[in-house]
Structures are given as structure tokens and as C-alpha cells.
Design brief:
121 residues; 4-stranded antiparallel sheet; mainly beta
């Protein structure tokens, strides 16, 4: 079992930046695609970004393109989400998800517990 563990959330002002990390607890993420999702209060969980098994392909939701960057460091068994130019509407719990294969498709195999990101105006 490979359990994602997120960290790096917090409170930031609008226009600021945060970097979320997702580490593997247990085995490794190597050879698996990974993704980030988020869920705001009263809303459904939504896709944010994904990265394939070797980092050669990424996908982003339209609302984060140009602001967020997903990356992976397999030597550290960690996936990152760099978030720049944050907006109050980015406030949500952010979840890391491990895919079932080398490219991402729903449903994920494992979810992390989530990390809170709050953007103040």
C-alpha cells in the first residue's frame, strides 16, 4: 500500500505563493501517475493537475493554468504543486492522489488526507 501524505498548506494573502508536497508513506510512487485535487466548502472535489509516471506529461484544470505547476522528484518519492498568484477562490483542502497506472485516470487508487490552503483577500 502506498499512502500519499500531503504537507505545505497554510494561510497566504492573495497574490502569494505556496508549495504543496505529497510524500509516499509505505512503498513508492515510481511508475505511477499522480494528481492533485481540491475541495472547497460546499463544493465537490475537483481536478487540479496531474503528472504521468516519468514527469514527461502534465495536465491542468483551466482555472490554474499558468499559475500552478505540478512536478515530481522520484529520488525523494515526492510530488509537488507549486501555486503562484493565489486567489481567494483557490481556498480549499488540497488532496494528493495516486493513480492506478502510468497515466492518470479516475478513480485514483489512493487519496491523501488533505492539506488546507486558505487565501485571504
Amino acid at each position: 500500500q502506498v499512502q500519499p501524505v500531503e504537507s505545505g498548506g497554510g494561510l497566504v494573502q492573495a497574490g502569494g505563493s505556496l508549495r504543496l508536497s505529497c510524500a509516499a508513506s509505505g512503498r513508492t510512487f515510481y511508475h505511477y501517475a499522480m494528481a492533485w485535487f481540491r475541495q472547497a466548502p460546499g463544493k465537490e472535489r475537483e481536478f487540479v493537475a496531474s503528472i504521468n509516471w516519468n514527469g514527461g506529461s502534465t495536465n491542468y484544470a483551466a482555472f490554474v493554468k499558468g499559475r500552478f505547476t505540478i512536478a515530481r522528484d522520484d529520488a525523494k518519492n515526492t510530488v509537488y504543486l507549486q501555486m503562484n498568484s493565489l486567489k481567494p477562490e483557490d481556498t480549499a483542502v488540497y488532496y494528493c492522489a495516486k493513480a492506478r497506472g502510468i497515466t492518470y485516470s479516475n478513480p485514483p487508487e489512493y487519496w491523501g488526507q488533505g492539506t488546507q490552503v486558505t487565501v485571504s483577500s
